[in-house]
């Protein structure tokens, strides 16, 4: 049964099994896919009473941009595979909601089409074997209005996934191909030699956009990112798709948040299922909380309208949850609102 | 199979599914409904031997009123939905047992009818959007004999419940409507702006009755309540009906009890299933232990007689449990009788 | 499928369901029946290698009596209900094995018949409402050769059991009735007023036999027993039959053993299933390890021969286990051989 | 469904049930068989990002011998029972892969046939009741090229296994019989009197080969082995086949590695299922990680080619895992890459 916060059952009804599995799958035994979800639930909420919660305001900022909610759209590739509207549909729904949209390097719509409908948006960067392509994608994105770059660090190689699918993502990522005339497929593969130095390189190439490193799961890495010039770190294990058996994001988050303190902003994603998980993430130090598969299921189920409904449902559910824990704004969601069991 | 301590199976046999579900349901994924129950069981009992337990006396006091047992009837609304005798039946059974009865603001019988049969009783207060109605309910209850006010703090808004039911509680709460001539439905909704200041307001309106804050799950909140004039705090998460994923009451209780020390009395409810849980609650610092759904199932199964049987079964079971842990009175149930596993 | 260490499946095949259930049942939700078993398994063994284990000797002493093994027969009543040979069959098998036998106050065979075949044995004492009967049972047992008294402290009242059985134990406990001419049934009920003072009383009545207090689950109680003159304490929760939700014996044992140190001997029972559990108990400070239901199932399956087979199987299994942990005698089973997980 | 890393399903299809069960079984309730596997998974990985992982090199050394990978073939007996190529097939596959092969005393092929095809290999030693046979096996192995001796310490007696099998291993271990003319079966049984002194004896008999003690699960034993002249210790519980309920190897490993520090090398086996477990083992201090049943299933499924495929699959999977945790060589896999949950 579908709920407004989880349209996976609806999506399963309309997607070819191969595409469904491509979205759902994780690496290895899919332990991390499950552990991500479970770990949020192991943070018990400790609501406050009698605080007066008539007006809750979810507005916040992310790297200086004002957004309507801490909930954001995490980058996921190949969105036209799940619905013909693809990234354009998702970007439009996010814009309507006033939520941040992150566009994947592996997008399947034309950059200009996405940018035309998008509200505030960031570009997710995979450094490709042919760095020239990466530079081109970055430059064009800057020109099209991207406000930050999200360098994904957890994918030096694309890992073997659990459920093999006949869906071959390589050729579905058409955005980058549209922007260059390189035809050699291997040029578009992940570069395995990405290092901290690439944070500076991306700042340069982009003319100074803030860089967020996505895939950070440790305090020392977080500090190293900041030292190398990152404006933010994004706690993620790629939704359990890259390396199974890693620490769940709800466990890694407080360690990372404590490590960077006020030196950088902190984002998180992985297994978030409702407003309670968002509140937990805020309490543990996140400024923004990403939705990956949830957006894809909603897009699959009902295109841009589906994503708009999803974001609206999150807003309502998060507002109610904030009232019930006794917080009126994201900054009012403090660490004492959760406890590990 | 029904047991004398749990008439849910019997109730299911007689209640319309909608009403059954309305009573049974919790918020979210109903994790807290289950966690409340489980958490009691995670406190292992550490019985004492050779203490001589010929005579066990369950008598105790609650805010100065002598009652026959630490077990009390928690406030639950709309009791006529589960049995035509409604709150009158429950109040009469509690009176016969010598147990404390707490009357909900959302009661469905006439106040005077309840007061006429009740033994010691308290009024549970929801501050409504139209505070005049709340004042009226409080004043009339004081006149009718209420000995304390229980301000429920965990319901600034009524949360979305898991099992949607076509039962609409709004119009079933007839007690308050009977006492006023306000017809506007929204006047009867929860006021989301309740704060600690309302503790003082309720003392004033009631001419000085002691105020108990219900829904407290944290040490700091408990101390704040006492500082604001509360005579007691009631550790509760509304039986898992308001916010899923919160700390179970059996976990929050010792923190709260330690925080208030002897400055206030402490009550608790949520997932209590037998005398062992009552003993655990007493050991962890509770003076009284509330039954919510258990009373409704008993009322549904057999009206006032069902509730009387339930309270008698608890008395017998609690007496046996006290003998087996080596305690002769509630005050003899000390902290060392339990240990967390 | 029956194993030599667990004849329950065989017993189920021959026992009337009522009697089977009477033996199998526990109090409450039978959580402690399960927890007793589980808790042993949570002590991981830490075997030593290269210690040379050609000859393992299981011989030990219990309150000065030499026995062939730390495994002993715990007291259980009404043994003629499970097999016509009753306590006589069990006592004979224990005598052949050189193992300690503990005779229940609720035995169903004649005292002299048991004593005639028994090897080293102790009398388990329930103080009855008519203390004269208790005195008589003790005195006659002393005369018949009992070497110690085991005062059961966990049964001031007989608790309500989970599976109700039409088997009424009251009249099946014929040993005590045979020794007196009291006909009043209530005289044979448990006395709920037993205290530490009764340790001294039993020493007196018995002319100075050592007293073991059975049912101890806490350090403070253990010390109090020793201070009151007990020669040993027996960590037990009555196989989960008296109070559900108590601390498992494998958890209580080290606390108790540490508390009494060398001032008293320590015994334990509850959920023991094989030599590994016996080794765990020895490592945690027990001198003797009792089998309750296991003996009844063996008796039911094959009378005295069944019990003999059971004790032989334990001896073989325990010997192998000792070799594999690298210990050659019970005193070589030290605390470091286990670790809690 | 078989995976390249686990050919058990294929093996089940071709093996007689008795042989399958002989390989699969563990001691007791097979808790340790399961716990070994589970315990690796309880070490969460903490990957590093942006480290540059273009070239991963798995090469390492074991007691001075260079091998292509930390993955090695643990000693298992009677390999001709699972496939006619037996130890010769396994040794050849290991040689092709450049991996270490450990030959069991209970091997079923002729020593010279194995040595003829083997790459780097060690002899696993069971001290037999007739020590002359052991000496002969050791001397002939040294002559044939064995580079170290692995003294198995966890098998002073062969334990009772859970699934009884009509397969009788005694006569299937023909290697040792081929090398001597002793016909008395009992001469080939395990000697239960093996002690630390036998480490020195084996060095002598072998003319100074390094000795590895296999079956160590404790810090104190590990230190005692080193003090007695061992060059390495091998953390193992014999794949859960000797004593059920012992500490899983993934739990014992860090304790042992910390205890020996740089005084000896540390190996481990038990329940390893993929490259992630190998990385965990390296992080916890192991230099080499053994595969027991996995090799037998591969051998059963496809003879020498099956084992070669298995080792190749491990190399690929381990390489990918190393890239995803951000390590380029076994020595780069540091303790901080894992955390216990
Ligand atoms: C189908 C799919 C494609 C993804 N593509 C990308 C991508 O191109 N770039 C990236 O950084 N993360 C990608 N991710 C990871 C997401 O950004 C996000 O980290 C993850 O989905 C969060 O977990 P959740 O799905 O449980 O919400 C992808 C995830 C999925 C499910
Ligand atoms: C059907 C139902 C109605 C309730 N109505 C009220 C109410 O009107 N006021 C209130 O403070 N609590 C109300 N509660 C919460 C109970 O007072 C109590 O906190 C809870 O039921 C305890 O958990 P238990 O049902 O597991 O015993 C209600 C609970 C139920 C199940
Ligand atoms: C059927 C039955 C009768 C028992 N009768 C007695 C008894 O008369 N006196 C006593 O001290 N304990 C009695 N016990 C408790 C045992 O002595 C022992 O503590 C318990 O059975 C140990 O747990 P186990 O059955 O898991 O081994 C009885 C237990 C059973 C199962
Ligand atoms: C069928 C079988 C035979 C074995 N034979 C031996 C042996 O002869 N010598 C030895 O030291 N270990 C022996 N072992 C234990 C292995 O060396 C190794 O410790 C264990 O299999 C590792 O666990 P795994 O099977 O989970 O990988 C045997 C294991 C199996 C499954």
TrEMBL record, chains A, B, C, D:
Keyword Transcription in annotation: no
Q: Which UniProt keywords apply?
A: Flavoprotein, FMN, Oxidoreductase
Which residue ranges traverse the bilayer? Answer: none
Indicate yes or no for the key word Zinc.
no
Positions binding glyoxylate in this chain are 22, 126, 161, 238, 241
- The record's active-site residues are 238
MF terms from GO for this chain are: FMN binding; oxidoreductase activity, acting on CH-OH group of donors
PROSITE patterns linked:
FMN_HYDROXY_ACID_DH_1 (PS00557), FMN_HYDROXY_ACID_DH_2 (PS51349)
* Record PANTHER family: FMN-DEPENDENT ALPHA-HYDROXY ACID DEHYDROGENASE PB1A11.03, S -2-HYDROXY-ACID OXIDASE-RELATED
Provide the protein name: Alpha-hydroxy-acid oxidizing protein
- Source species, please? Nocardioides agariphilus
């Amino acid at each position: 049964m579908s709920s407004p916060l989880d349209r996976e059952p609806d999506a399963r009804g309309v997607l070819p099994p191969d595409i469904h599995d491509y979205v759902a799958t994780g690496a290895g035994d899919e332990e991390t896919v499950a552990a991500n979800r479970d770990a949020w639930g192991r943070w018990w909420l400790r609501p406050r009473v009698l605080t007066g919660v008539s007006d809750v305001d979810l507005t916040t900022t992310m790297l200086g941009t004002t957004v309507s909610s801490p909930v954001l759209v995490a980058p996921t590739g190949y969105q036209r595979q799940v619905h013909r509207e693809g990234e354009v549909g998702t970007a439009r729904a996010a814009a309507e909601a006033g939520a941040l949209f992150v566009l994947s390097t592996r997008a399947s719509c034309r950059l200009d089409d996405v940018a035309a409908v998008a509200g505030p948006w960031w570009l997710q960067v995979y450094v490709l074997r042919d760095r020239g392509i990466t530079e081109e994608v970055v430059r064009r994105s800057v020109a099209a209005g991207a406000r930050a770059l999200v360098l994904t660090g957890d994918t030096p190689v694309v890992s073997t996934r659990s459920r093999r699918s006949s869906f071959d993502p390589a050729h579905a990522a058409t955005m980058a191909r549209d922007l260059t005339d390189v035809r050699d497929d291997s040029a578009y593969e992940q570069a395995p030699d990405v290092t901290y130095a690439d944070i500076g390189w991306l700042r340069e190439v982009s003319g100074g956009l803030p860089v967020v490193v996505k895939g950070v799961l440790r305090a020392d890495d977080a500090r190293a990112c900041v030292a190398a010039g990152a404006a933010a770190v994004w706690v993620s294990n790629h939704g359990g798709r890259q390396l199974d058996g890693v620490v769940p994001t709800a466990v890694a988050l407080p360690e990372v948040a404590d490590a960077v303190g006020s030196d950088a902003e902190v984002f998180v994603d992985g297994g978030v299922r409702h407003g309670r998980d968002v509140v937990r993430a805020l309490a543990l130090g996140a400024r923004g909380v990403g939705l990956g598969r949830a957006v894809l299921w909603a897009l699959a189920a009902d295109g841009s309208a589906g994503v708009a409904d999803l974001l609206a449902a999150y807003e309502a559910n998060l507002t109610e949850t904030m009232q019930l824990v006794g917080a009126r704004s994201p900054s009012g969601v403090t660490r004492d609102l959760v406890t590990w069991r």
